[in-house]
Amino acid sequence: MRGAGDTLSIGERIAFYRVRRGLTQSVLANLVGRSEDWLSKIERGEREIRRLDILAELARALRVTLADLIGQPVLVEDDRESDDVPAIRDALMSPRRLSQLLFNQTAIAQIDVTHTERLTVTAWDDYQNGGLGRTVAVLPQLLASAQALEAEGTRAGWRVSARVHHLAATTLSKIGEVDLAWIAAERAMSAAGQSEDPLALASAARAGTHALLSVGRYDDALQVGDAARSWLMSTVRAGEPEALSLLGMLDLRMAVAAARRQDRATTTDLLDRATEAAARLGHDANHWQTAFGPTNVHVHRVSTALDLGDVAYVAEHGPRIDPSPLPIERQVCHRIDVARAYSHLAQDEEAVDALLMAEQQAPQFVRHNPAVRETVRAIYRRSPVTMGGRQSVVIQLAERCRAV
């Protein structure tokens, strides 16, 4: 964490940064167009903030990042041996990256582009199957190989580098390293441009939208996604499965951005457009690690409904979706969304069951998720002492997620 401890609730973090800035509750509430009573209840934990756009406004008023308020995670517990984030940072910020001209005198071992591509695909598979720690562990070497491939200057090398940096951006966003994620996303798009592969560039743009979503820059995420989609449409045949998947996934990413800025009409239009692409594709697939298809569109309808505040809709329709055709990472994200909706409705038993199911599939993705931590903390505070064995389950889950 940067400043406020990881055990603090969102309300406590808001209070921490408000006091650090020397603002009264009245002043901060006025800055975000809310009442002092509303802010007081938020800081005391008597009321929840369910919308990310409100948190983004508070972050701007407090001059901190969205991640600072949400409490973005770091790798903990069973990941200590695989916590290679410092090594990823070193690889991304290597002095050699500043200038190939200055460092061209230093010999770089030749890298087999086909072998590196296979390793990258394996790392993507690990990520999508819930192996967050394994992905983090292999990224430093993959980034070093990508840098060597860039020095060779072949289109194939640039293309693989784009895939490596896209994976880095996605992984870093997931574990809360949003600044590093943005660097990786920028490198992914730059490498994809050098490869002159339109599919690689459209895929890398997903990394850019992901990084922008992580820091609450929803308008920028929409702009990047729309530009990438328009460019891809003008350069490839949209009926190809790979292109359909990338176009559809860009629409889904933009739908999330629109929902988080509370633009319901745009969200609906983008989801409808993704639905058409999924219908043309005809099945669930994983071209370019998009996991795109009808099921992912259904999952995103639920996810964006949660961002729009339609909690009852998520609680009703979310459990009806069978996410099993999707990679484990997507399945877990869906179960977390359903659990959050249940929690907002104080249906705590259902929320805990959904979280336990997700945790069984991919412990790392659940235990390091800030939204999970906040949800479990809320359930823990509501849990009566008389729950007996059920309370023990809640306490154990809260401890595993570092919520208490």
Biggest beta sheet attributes: none
Q: Report mean pLDDT, rounded to a whole number.
A: 87
Instruction: List unreliable stretches of 5+ residues.
Output: 74-80
Overall SS class: mainly alpha
Strand-residue proportion: under 5%
Radius of gyration equals 21 Å
Distance between the termini: 16 Å
Total count of domains: 3
> How many individual helices?
21
What is the strand tally?
0
Helix content: 55-70%
Question: Topology as H/E string?
Answer: HHHHHHHHHHHHHHHHHHHHH
Globally, the shape reads: globular
Question: Could you explain how this protein is built, in words?
Answer:
The structure is a single chain. The chain is mostly helical and 404 residues long. It folds into 3 domains: 1-71, 434 Repressor (Amino-terminal Domain), CATH 1.10.260.40; 73-215, no CATH class; 325-404. 70% of the residues lie in helices and 0% in strands. It contains 21 helices and no strands. Helix 7 (113-128) packs parallel to helix 9, helix 9 runs antiparallel to helix 10 and helix 13 packs parallel to helix 15. 52% of the residues are buried.
